[in-house]
Amino acid sequence: RLLGAPSRCEEQKEKCEFKPQRPGRKIPKYMPPPLPTNKKWFGTPIEEMRRMPLCGARLPHLRPSANHTVTIRVDLLREGEVPKPFPTHYKDLWDNKHVKMPCSEQNLYPVEDENGDRTAGSRWELIQTALLNKFTCSHDLKEAILRYNVAYAKKWDFTALTDFCDKILEDAEAQHLFQSILPDMVKLALCLPNICTQPIPLLKQKMNHSITMSQEQIASFLANAFFCTFPRRNAKMKSEYSSYPDINFNRLFEGRSPRKPEKLKTLFCYFRRVTEKKPTGLVTFTRQSLQDFPDWERSQKKLSRLHVTYEGTIESNGHGMLQVDFANRFVGGGVTGAGLVQEEIRFLINPELIVSRLITEVLDHNECLIITGTEQYSEYTGYAETYRWARSHEDKTPRDEWQRRYTEIVAIDAFHFRRFLDQFGPEKIRRELNKAYCGFSRPNVPPQHLSAVATGNWGCGAFGGDSRLKALIQILAAAEAGRDVVYFTFGDVELMRDIYSMHTFLCEKGQTVGDIYRLLLRYYNEECRSCSTSGPDVKLYSFIYSTIESYADSTDDDDDEEKGLCFED
Fold first, then answer.
1. Is 343 a catalytic residue?
2. Boundaries of each PARG catalytic Macro domain copy (predicted)?
3. 422, 447, 473 — which closes off a domain?
4. Which residues are annotated as a binding site for substrate?
């Protein structure tokens, strides 16, 4: 503590430590039984957890419906073949329900004719002219992008792009970029009206809607994002798209952060791959907006199974499981800007995720985004400041009957806590439970067909979440949704042991989701509500152990049957 000044809590010790207990009754200090010291994981062996495709039900035939947009010819879908766009010819909708396309006839910009009169010109024609000029250096690329983004000529900064091309890349690499990769990317971008022929609906708040498109269509969208061609998506405090993430890549090109070259390497790896060989799969983006949530206080559900480990990652060890993206409410977070933590890394190594930023309005508290079928194109090392692109990755994940990779990712945004204690408040706990439940729940799918949730310290970095509380919240939400949990602590051995001990204890004591939820409310009332320091004296897990133990002690004289103890076999 700064200069060792006594905290307010030390001055007000009596006030803080007052517990509404029966007089003279001391809460016993419970210690969970010791665990072996050298184990890398605890709980149910990961091999016993449900994974796709083994656990999945058969998919219905892929067909468009009122709540499912399909942008390819379903009748011509064949394994290993590039899907055909539907409809055959480009159809445009320039309205507030669909993506405003760069190639739309409505995408206009002001021009002066020879008499000095102002008329409207086609921005798409300008884009084509600008991009079809040969680039020999980063300056050419910058000039091309600014030709159709004149309003931003003095605002956008291309330092990161320039440094990458001039200082980071070897001469041969830079030559390959300008002679091969970028011209191929231009072709891919300008093919947009031939590849993406159907208007793409925006996934707005309160919608339950899916969009299934081809990896080739996504590649064309992303090439356009790279060249910053999407109209109406740049103004900051603007009306129309202020509730959507950025899609144009201009922020990727700015500044001198050492993270930028690594991001650019990762994305150019993707563009090189998809231009060398067209991908043949499909990807589905689903916005799920739930109206009905569990009555947490009265839930009788028992906890599901848990595997917890300090080794491995969600993307490498959670294959076939529901993989959690610790999302920003603007999905993708800072992927095209400064951010480089869990969500941004996932969007970089599986860049098809970035298209969700084109279509997904900011997530509300009762919503999530589910993305099925994206492919991993890169491997990496490190995290945040130490992130490095390592190499190209050949994704071997099998495909389902809709030609989607069996990779299901759910974006759920944790609440951002400014003060540590805020997260223990009842409405905040309920908010996080409901958000996780929204991500994990699949109404109308029987539990035996639900894969395990692969997750970790959701919302525990910059968002100020407590990892032990967040683990418990996710365990409760998964139990309610009928899913097992595979939890990665990302190198934190102590956290692994704590989560396992708590899960085992709660199962052995027969605690239901409702019992545990009520304990969280009690913890807030007794330890957090009137605490004047930044953190409570009694830690959450100690409180849970002691409260359940003292309850068990006080009922020892009663009939044991009533305790409802259940021991895991």
1. yes
2. 294-496
3. 473
4. 328, 342, 383
The DSSP call for residue 65 is B
- Based on the fold, state whether residues 328 and 436 are members of the same structural domain: yes
* Domain range for 544: 2-30+509-555
Pick from 212, 182, 484, 241: nearest CA to 361: 241
**Annotation marks residue 112 as catalytic:** no
Q: How far apart are CA 420 and CA 568, in angstroms?
A: 34
95 and 225 co-located in one domain: yes
Same domain flag for 440 and 518: no
Per-residue pLDDT of the chain (569 residues; tens, 9 = 90+): 333 444 444 444 334 444 444 444 455 678 899 999 999 999 999 999 999 999 999 999 999 999 999 999 999 999 999 999 999 999 999 999 999 999 999 999 999 888 889 999 999 999 999 999 999 999 999 999 999 999 999 999 999 999 999 999 999 999 999 999 999 999 999 999 999 999 999 999 999 999 999 999 999 999 999 999 999 998 776 679 999 999 999 999 999 999 999 999 999 999 999 999 999 999 999 999 999 999 999 999 999 999 999 999 999 999 999 999 999 999 999 999 999 999 999 999 999 999 999 999 999 999 999 999 999 999 999 999 999 999 999 999 999 999 999 999 999 999 999 999 999 999 999 999 999 999 999 999 999 999 999 999 999 999 999 999 999 999 999 999 999 999 999 999 999 999 999 999 999 999 999 999 999 999 999 999 999 898 899 999 999 999 999 987 776 555 444 444 443 43
| CA 40/CA 242 separation, integer angstroms | 45
The residues, any chain, with a CB within 8 Å of residue 148's CB and separated by 6 or more, are 109, 123, 126, 127, 130, 229
Residue 375 designated active-site: no
**Cα 407 from Cα 399, distance rounded (Å):** 9
* Catalytic site residue from 216, 343, 400, 526: 343
Task: Provide the annotated binding site.
Answer: 328, 342, 383
User: In this structure, are 399 and 548 located in the same domain?
Assistant: no
Q: Is residue 191 part of a domain?
A: yes
Does the model's pTM come out above 0.90? yes
| 37 inside domain | no
Burial of 57 (0-12, 13-18, 19+ CB in 10 A): exposed
Quickly tell me which residue has 């010790």 as its tokens: 13
Q: Which of 473, 495, 519 is the last residue of a domain?
A: 473
Q: Is residue 211 part of a domain?
A: yes
Do 201 and 261 belong together in one domain?
yes
Q: Which residues contact 10 (CB under 8 A, 6 or more apart)?
A: none
Q: Residue 449 gets which letter from DSSP?
A: G
Residues 247 and 316 in one domain: yes
User: Within 13 Å, how many C-alpha atoms sit on residue 75's CB side?
Assistant: 2
209 Cα distance to chain centroid: 18
In a domain, residue 400? The reply is yes
Rounded to 10 deg, the angle between the 467-481 and 513-523 helix axes is 150
| The two three-digit tokens of residue 60, written as one number | 């219905």
Annotated catalytic residue within 163, 325, 375, 432: 325
- What tokens does 207 get? 């919608």
Side-chain half-sphere exposure of 318, counting CA atoms within 13 A: 28
Counting the structural domains of the chain, the total is 2
